[in-house]
Write a sequence for this structure.
């Protein structure tokens, strides 16, 4: 079965420190990979995606993600965290060979950035 | 420009009642998706439209759930004989068309079945 794993329910970092939110997937082929962020009582906001090419993808608000094919991972990173980055982060994949464009989401990781 | 909008933002109903949830996608987007997000979980796919037709409805949990998109724009998710287990946030997303296109999400409708 195709799945996405976000092994950490919560990540705690101090403001100004680098952050990493982990994501691994089990999907056949090379899927399209996405990160979304969700603030309280709001919908999902797109951060970045990997389609092809450079394994390091840059996105909104200073976030970036690194695609690692051998480890089937797509970890989200930011060099210097802000308190305002505190939110719920979701990794999602879309199987490249799937005729349906549906996204498969992980269970989410809550990021808490302390001042 | 305007994003994806969903109405109502909140819906409280009683067990056994019928509900309709509406999604208005970004103008020009031909693909539209419905997802359901239960508390503490990631969104789960329900149904995907390409234009007016349902291209993939494999995520609908049972025949109480139905969705339409008659003119290829606005979509309505319909739930018959609601059950307490249907309580969740229902998210709608739209994308231009292509396989690699980003899906843009609406704010969701929080459905509570008493």
């Amino acid at each position: 079965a195709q799945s996405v794993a976000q092994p950490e329910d919560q990540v705690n970092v101090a403001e100004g420190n680098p952050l990493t939110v982990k994501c691994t997937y089990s999907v056949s082929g090379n899927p399209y990979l996405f990160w979304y962020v969700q603030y309280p009582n709001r919908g999902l906001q797109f951060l970045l995606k990997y389609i092809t090419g450079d394994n390091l993808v840059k996105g909104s608000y200073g976030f970036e993600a690194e695609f690692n094919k051998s480890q089937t991972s797509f970890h989200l990173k930011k060099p210097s965290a802000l308190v305002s980055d505190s939110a719920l982060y979701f990794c999602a994949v879309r199987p490249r060979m799937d005729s349906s464009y549906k996204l498969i989401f992980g269970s989410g990781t809550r990021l808490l950035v302390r001042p | 420009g305007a994003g994806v909008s969903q109405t109502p933002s909140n819906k409280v109903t009683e067990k056994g009642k019928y509900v309709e949830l509406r999604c208005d996608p970004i103008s020009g987007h031909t693909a539209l998706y419905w997802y359901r997000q239960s508390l503490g979980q990631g969104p789960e796919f329900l149904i995907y439209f390409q234009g007016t037709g349902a291209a993939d409805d494999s995520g609908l949990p049972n025949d109480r759930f139905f969705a339409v998109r008659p003119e290829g724009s606005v979509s309505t998710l319909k739930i018959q004989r609601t059950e307490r287990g249907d309580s969740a946030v229902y998210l709608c997303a739209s994308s231009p068309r292509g396989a690699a296109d980003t899906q843009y999400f609406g704010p969701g409708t929080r459905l509570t079945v008493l």
In short: Chain A is about 0% helix and 50% strand. The two ends of chain A are 41 Å apart (CA to CA). The CA atoms of residues 58 and 64 of chain A lie 4 Å apart. The interface with chain B takes residues 4, 32, 34, 36, 41-46, 49, 51, 90, 92, 94, 96, 99-108 of chain A (CB under 8 Å).
